[in-house]
Amino acid sequence: MKIHHIAIICSDYGISKKFYTETLGLSIIREVYREERQSYKLDLAIGDHYVIELFSFPEPPERLSHPEACGLRHLAFSVDNVHEKRKELVEKGLSCEEIRNDEFTGKEFFFTQDPDRLPLEFYAG
């Protein structure tokens, strides 16, 4: 029917929480600390749409390679204006690739990454 949510495990919860909420502007739905797992779970939304569960766990292993490791290759966000979004993220201190064109759709996009080097794509919606 549709994707319900995407789960991300971060290495530094405070840094990732700030990145996803302040830098990317996702809103917090709920934040829970699970003592028995020594783990935070932060539910995030874009507008009214629940999209990301951000987890912390003690000593999670690092991503094996970048970006071609097995598993999730990147997370893509649809934006109204790729140029404005790139400018906004660069002004917030992120290193962003140059804007490219999708050879199949002709739409513009660019990549950056989260604090754990998870590739993030911003794609013309």
TrEMBL record:
Pfam family, one: Glyoxalase
Domain named VOC: residues: 2-125
Keywords: Metal-binding
Leader sequence segment: none
GO molecular function terms noted in the UniProt entry: metal ion binding
Name assigned to this protein: Glyoxylase I family protein
Organism this protein belongs to: Chryseobacterium defluvii
Organism phylogeny: Bacteria, Pseudomonadati, Bacteroidota, Flavobacteriia, Flavobacteriales
